[in-house]
């Protein structure tokens, strides 16, 4: 039953052009009872998924640590209420859930920019500043009305 549901979900995502991991993880959130204590936007018993993403997105190994906390539970991470272990979630599912939660942080959706290497910086400097360019290459200032 779960396999056929996942298969249908995968086909639907492919047909609609949706990222499979996101749709599958949203389905996992619902099927593994995460929404009993969490929601995307607001705190219920536990913190919202967006709050978790905001707190954890910059940590090294955040997804792996979150996956472990999902499976084994945690204490003292978000106040006095402990998160119980979720024995219904296997390791791969926990990893998918953690990745999905981290994807909710705005920084994770921003396109990564490659750092300039020495040769890239040299090429940029070789062009010079706009004042070094011929007048026809410079943008003309517009008069304000």
TrEMBL record:
Species of origin: Vandammella animalimorsus
Basic and acidic residues bias (residue ranges): 129-139
Residue span, Cytochrome c domain: 20-105
SUPFAM superfamilies: Cytochrome c
Signal sequence segment: 1-24
A single GO molecular function term of this UniProt record: heme binding
Alphabetical keyword list: Electron transport, Heme, Iron, Metal-binding, Signal, Transport
Protein name according to UniProt: Cytochrome c domain-containing protein
Residue sites binding heme c per the record: 34, 38, 83
Post-translational modification remark: Binds 1 heme c group covalently per subunit.
Keyword Heme belongs to the record: yes
InterPro entries referenced in this protein's UniProt entry, alphabetically: Cyt_c-like_dom, Cyt_c-like_dom_sf, Cyt_c_ID
Taxonomy, superkingdom: Bacteria
Residue stretches spanning the membrane: none
Positions of region (Disordered): 106-145
Composition bias, Low complexity: 106-117
């Amino acid at each position: 039953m779960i396999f056929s549901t996942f298969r249908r979900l995968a086909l639907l995502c492919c047909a609609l052009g949706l990222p499979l991991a996101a749709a599958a993880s949203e389905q996992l959130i619902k099927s593994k009872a995460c929404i009993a204590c969490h929601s995307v936007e607001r705190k219920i018993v536990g913190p919202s998924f967006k709050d978790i993403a905001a707190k954890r997105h910059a940590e090294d190994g955040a997804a792996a640590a979150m996956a472990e906390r999902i499976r084994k539970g945690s204490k003292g991470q978000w106040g006095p209420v402990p998160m119980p272990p979720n024995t219904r979630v296997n390791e791969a599912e926990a990893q998918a859930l953690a990745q999905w939660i981290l994807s909710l942080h705005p920084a994770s959706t921003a396109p990564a920019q490659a750092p300039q290497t020495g040769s890239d910086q040299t090429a940029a400097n070789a062009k010079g500043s706009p004042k070094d360019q011929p007048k026809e290459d410079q943008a003309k200032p517009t008069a304000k009305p």
